[in-house]
Amino acid sequence: MKRTLILGASTNPSRYSNKAANMLHKHGHAIVNIGLSGGEAAGVPIEKKGEIYTDIDTVTMYLSEPNQKEYYDYILATKPKRIIFNPGAENAELEQLAMEHGIKTERACTLVLLSTGQF
């Protein structure tokens, strides 16, 4: 199954990143949670940016554009196949950088993609 990095992971069950972690887990996807809060989402620890994972299929973005800049190099180093920009996380600059590195980008909602079998 595809391994997904959730950028902006949260322990708060009302946050969409937390809902995505649980739905990805429910659908059998391995996840990596990256965030600032610590704790866990869907039973997986929330890590701070550090270890670079090289087996990431998808980065699903839950950070607003201004908060993404410090993660550009980290995201590119993971060499994901795609980045999903969830509503509110759209970022034309990062989309351009990703495309220059052969990474597909998608402006979509991870929850909808999972619910409709399009993930």
From TrEMBL:
Domain CoA-binding: 2-113
SUPFAM superfamilies: NAD(P)-binding Rossmann-fold domains
Record-annotated membrane-spanning stretches: none
Pfam families with a match to the protein in the record: CoA_binding_2 (PF13380)
Domain of life: Bacteria
UniProt name for this protein: CoA-binding protein
Organism listed in the record: Sphingobacterium paramultivorum
Taxonomic lineage: Bacteria, Pseudomonadati, Bacteroidota, Sphingobacteriia, Sphingobacteriales
